Hints:
Layout (H helix, E strand, L loop, with lengths): L1 H5 L8 H15 L3 E8 L5 E3 L5 E7 L11 H14 L3 E5 L3 H13 L2 E5 L5 H4 L9 H13 L2 E4 L2 H10 L5 E2 L18 E5 L8 H10 L5 E4 L7 H12 L4 E3 L5 H9 L1 E6 L10 H7 L5 E3 L6 H5 L2 E3 L3 H13 L1 H18 L2 H16 L13 E3 L1
Parallel strand pairs: 1-3, 1-14, 4-5, 4-14, 5-6, 6-7, 8-9, 8-11, 9-10, 11-12, 12-13
Antiparallel strand pairs: 2-3
Helix pairs in contact: 2-15, 4-6, 8-13
Amino acid sequence: MVALLTGNGPKAMGGAELQLDLLGRELRRRGWQVSFLVGDYGQERVQETPDGIRLLRAYANSAGGRSMASTVGAMREFWKALKDVDASIYVTRGLTGQAGIVAAYSRVRRKKYVFWFGKNSDARYGVPWLSGLPLTERLPASYGIRAASAVVCQTEQQRELLRKHIGRDGVLIRNATPWCEGTSIRESGGYALWVGSVQPKKRPDMMLDLAAEMPDVRFVMAGGSIKGHTELYHTTEQRAAELPNVDFLGFVPFAEIQKHFRSADLLISTSDGRDEGFPNVFLQAWSIGVPVVATCDPDGVISRHNLGFHCKSIAEMRGAIGRLREDRLLRHEIGKRAREYVRENHSLERVGNRLETLLKGLLGDGSPHRDDEQDRRAHA
């Protein structure tokens, strides 16, 4: 969040951070007061962006692999930061032990708390004996998703998982993406683009296996290392260097990634659909008319709206890539449908309306809000 909001910070980000950045800015544009509690990366304790979003340094980053929720001092510091921001609504995205702390604080202070799904496995993480979280985080995480005033899901599949594992209903608010003018429709000659953090659920090894079987196709990979998976990052980087048709770019800032989408014929996704949420890279591609070839298909949108190809094997991906690269008209038709789908379902205006309706409902006030009213603060 620090890097996205200020331009300075760790060279890493994921879909959750991107969505909170986009929607936080949209809420601020609509007049809401918006704050972010962030870790300590050496920045000032309180910062403010040019558009008036506050960043508060909430706690020191954990050391030695320990989670924030397992460190008493960090929890105390975090609790104080929650009090200092004095929001009416608190939001976390992605289930960790931190969710339980925010939920407990909100219950004690009679505030509203929203838990927002980051990935499908968050539903299992809410069940201690099914969770893949560290043992010290499992009970707080379970409390966090169960005690939330509202649970927001990215997809209908996540709503079903929430009902199955937690026994409660969720609010569907799809991911947002900025509208992009112009398209990427071009003559053949572009590359196949893969974008994502280098971690097991993204299966970068599968992407490299695909590239090894298609030596005549140029592939470009962009993605940074994340905590706990640095070895996979280095392995991926080394293996990519051994393939002459693969360019491995490492981490690319969000402000710079769009030019790579515009130069691509298609987007490749090798993510495991069981744990993935709704990949933001799909929206980035579709918003400029780039088809997607993917091993995951959240809510079946690729297949139902014909926005690319949903593949179950490397062999199917080879065939899909070949068709798209050889048929410019097919790419154009898919790209046109993709842009229309994004405009109708994922625009910042449409998603912002749904989010604002939820927030106003939690506050018990359906009337327009004003920036100077202290009880209209939103915090993410």
